[in-house]
Amino acid sequence: MGTYAVTGAASGMGRATAERLRSDGHTVIGVDLRDVEVVADLSTPQGRTAAAAEVLDRAGGRLDGAVCAAGLGGVAGRDRAIQQVNYFGVVDLLESWRPALAAAGNSKAVVFGSNSVTLTPMVPERAVRALLDRDPEKALRAVGRFGKRSAPFAYASSKLAVTRWARRSAISPQWAGAGIRLNVLAPGIISTPLLEEQIAHGEKEAVEQLAVPIGGRGKPEDVGEWVEFLLSPAADFLCGSVIFLDGGSDAYFRTDDW
Ligand code: NAI
Q: Is residue 155 annotated as a catalytic residue, yes or no?
């Protein structure tokens, strides 16, 4: 049985993942704003530093896996928080936990991306590059050009940046070479509080009209099962992959884009 850090473990897919791992006998160290082992605010550097350290302390410096599910949806008025949580809340924690993951020998990390990275038109490349360069003010200015409509771009650029960071890192000597498998899960429309918040904030039509070839919405429990699979020995040969779990939306919009 392993020890796993799971951010966003108080709700939605992070919670479903934590429940799934616990029910299979693993130890889970949840990180979130409430109702978990490590209560921390990942939108600030101090919160991230404290969260990373407390997890390492509780895990005894050895982690079999890490899952970064904490995230904020693209709701207006919080572009900065979206970038801080969705990008730095993943990168800073995983970089701090990397030695503990390496210490486990054969470990796994799963980052929550989003299918919005391919479905959102005109994701500002400048914002993506600024995040990868650790320049949040520049990233904010880049999405600020969209004015009141900036939130979806802040969201998609944060997810594209974290996906690119994960793919770059995954193949490096520090990750692949240290026996850590790092992959990205890119969900589509999944029934969680985050989705309900999007719908309540004017995205109802966009959510209902999005092409989902198999129809309906995904369930957080099914996503939790996928994450456990990505943490298992079955994923030993998976490295830097982006798995779209979206009922076919990405395939619909990018059918021949391969
Ligand atoms: P959720 O809202 O149910 O859970 C997200 C969790 O992150 C919450 O428990 C929340 O408290 C935590 N969180 C937010 N800000 C935080 C902060 N500053 N510090 C610590 N924790 C914080 O959302 P859901 O839907 O389960 O999302 C999980 C991941 O999947 C997110 O990264 C989201 O962007 C991504 N995603 C969700 C989709 C959906 O349709 N639900 C679609 C594509 C991606």
A: yes
